[in-house]
Amino acid sequence: IIETENLSKTYKIGPNPVHAIRDLSLSIPRGAFWAIEGSSGSGKSTLLNMLGCIDRPSSGKVIFDGEDVSKKSDSMLTRLRLMNIGFVFQQFYLIPTLKAIENITLPMKEAGIGRSKRRDRALELLEMMGLRKRANHHPNQLSGGEQQRVAIARALANNPKVILADEPTGELDSGTGGKIAELLAMLNKEKGITVVVVTHDRAMASRASRRISLTDGRLDA
Amino acid sequence: IIETENLSKTYKIGPNPVHAIRDLSLSIPRGAFWAIEGSSGSGKSTLLNMLGCIDRPSSGKVIFDGEDVSKKSDSMLTRLRLMNIGFVFQQFYLIPTLKAIENITLPMKEAGIGRSKRRDRALELLEMMGLRKRANHHPNQLSGGEQQRVAIARALANNPKVILADEPTGELDSGTGGKIAELLAMLNKEKGITVVVVTHDRAMASRASRRISLTDGRLDA
Ligand SMILES: Nc1ncnc2c1ncn2[C@@H]1O[C@H](COP(=O)(O)OP(=O)(O)OP(=O)(O)O)[C@@H](O)[C@H]1O
Ligand SMILES: Nc1ncnc2c1ncn2[C@@H]1O[C@H](COP(=O)(O)OP(=O)(O)OP(=O)(O)O)[C@@H](O)[C@H]1O
Ligand SMILES: [Mg+2]
Ligand SMILES: [Mg+2]
Question: CA B194 to CA B159: how far, in whole Å?
Fold first, then answer.
């Protein structure tokens, strides 16, 4: 469902550019559950952001669902992401002025879902995350792990084809993290959702059908 | 070095207050290395913020180095923290407009350390964290785990008596996380620094001389 060809991303900063991703080619089959591992700074978030059409490569291609992403305008990519991709950011990026439940309904509102339907779905997702009682808290009234779970719920809101999650259990104790791993495995198995998780959580990685790892921007053999 | 007596913290939000910490008494000996564990939302960050004199309790006392913290003004607490406590926040709170090296020199500047001495110390800390090459990156030009390591370096800048670290390896792969655990254990053993870590990382927790855990704001027996 997502392919890359000779993908590269270089950041120009000061005298020495940072080659965050170098000449990376991969092909993620529909319905797969992949874990991406690698040291801090090895390029995992940079890769995931390009797979999720959030960042554009410096060179090479990303092909999403058979279409070359570089041919699309920014507004087309925004639409593609809204309807197809559920992204969990490493730093959550919840909207501080919105309550937890509103952070979750926002993408549904943008997708044209009606008010009462999106409220029901948001409450159902909060319940799934064990956060029903925190629906009206703002992000700064939530613990780190609660914010992370709201970010996960938001990613699931529009029933995406693909979930791309960047360290989704980084702030969670093993019990809560285990439940998230179980949930993603269930969505993958029962709904055929393609899941790609950047993780250093062994319980999560062990759920994957394939584990790949990065070293200095390259895919390990 | 830090004691609490019947410590409680309640957040008033909506109709039902959140009793984040309830009637908690503990006594952390000088030179200890404690790990605080517990489920997401159990009160760990709330507790650590009160131990670090960042938040004031709703009731009960915090006694830091023999002194009742409630008797101190906000500016006295700011000074106490600057000179005695190295705090690693769960969400880092790096200053986005400052480069990595400047984030680390800032607390030294506030403590009156001279320019060349604090630059040397910051470079030494960056080297310790494997981030020498990232000295001039701003936080948004760093990976999640690199930001976390800059936050750790900043906490160590003024050679604190006490290090309070909230999930310091949450964003780190096990290799890098292991090095941080090793570093904290070394500072504890060789320099007698008291270390209290909120963590769900087993490698880190196993370094502790004592492991305590929270459930719903209370200390487990
Ligand atoms: N400002 C606030 N207003 C209302 N409730 C709050 C506020 N801050 C935290 N809480 C609630 O207090 C409880 C404890 O929060 P705390 O951040 O201490 O948890 P934690 O153990 O650190 O969790 P995590 O492991 O997820 O970081 C949580 O259930 C949270 O929703
Ligand atoms: N905007 C930027 N400008 C310059 N360098 C950057 C920028 N963003 C990231 N980098 C660098 O690119 C490298 C890869 O970053 P990336 O965020 O992909 O790593 P990562 O594998 O996700 O790491 P972590 O496990 O710590 O989250 C890092 O060394 C980082 O310093
Ligand atoms: Mg990352
Ligand atoms: Mg916390």
Answer: 11
Widest pairwise Cα distance in chain B = 54
Nearest ligand 1 atom to alpha carbon B13? 4
A117-137 per-position pLDDT tens digit = 999 999 999 999 999 999 999
Distance of alpha carbon B37 from alpha carbon B212, whole angstroms: 6
Counted residue by residue, chain B has a size of: 221
Q: How far apart are CA B118 and CA B104, in angstroms?
A: 9
User: Ligand 1 in contact with A130 (CB < 6 A)?
Assistant: no
Burial code (b: 16+ CB inside 10 Å, e: under 16) for A68-81 equals ebeeeeeeebeebb
Q: CB-based contact (8 Å) between A206 and chain B?
A: no
Cα A21 to Cα A41, A184, A217, distances in angstroms: 10, 26, 4
Q: Count CA within 13 A, CB hemisphere, residue B165.
A: 34
Q: Within its chain, how far is the Cα of A84 from the centroid?
A: 11
Coil, helix or strand at residue A96: coil
The neighbouring-strand residues paired with A33 are: A195
CB atoms within 10 A of CB B71: 8
* Residues ≥6 apart with Cβ < 8 Å to B161: B1, B65, B84, B85, B193, B194
Contact B171 A137 (CB under 8 A): no
Whether ligand 1 lies within 6 angstroms of the CB of B24 is answered as no
Residue A119 confidence (pLDDT): 98
On whether the CB atoms of residues A165 and A197 are closer than 8 A, the answer is yes
B17 lines ligand 2 (CB under 6 A): no
Residue with tokens 């309070």: B164
pLDDT digits (tens, 9 = 90+) for A42-85: 999 999 999 999 999 999 999 999 999 999 999 999 999 999 99
Q: Pairing state of beta strands A59-64 and A2-11?
A: antiparallel
